[in-house]
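call fold(seq) -> tokens
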Amino acid sequence: MPFHHVLVAYDGSPQSQTALDRAVDLVRGAPGAKLTVAHAFQLPNFVVGEAMVVAPVLTELEEMSESERILEEAKARAARLPDATFTLLQGDPAASILEFAGEMDADLIVIGSRGLGTFKELVLGSVSHYVVQHSPIPVLVIKNERSGR
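ret:
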């Protein structure tokens, strides 16, 4: 089944690097297919009682700078595919990826698995787990071959 528009969720982790490499291979092998790489970040906020405390401006600038660096890393990694597009998303990573996939009419999401243990996944959740459970389109979860995760 050929895919026409592949969305890769990229966070710079070894698993997402492998996911991007695999997605580039998928798109290169499918005439007319396109690739979009998205990095989603969420600015830290804290809830104390009924009040929400937002991150200081310096923290926001550092987070934005780091996110831009991660996206530049993805651009270098996908250089074999000159027509790929790259986007920064702000908000909850899992929800942002799913919403963006719908907006751009993607027909496949490629995402790395972080290899969280069952207990951590149950308590904290994970981006890849949420995306798999809530996506209306196919999701390809890539495990890092070297670590077995």
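Strands lie at 5-9, 34-41, 45-48, 51-54, 85-90, 108-112, 139-142.
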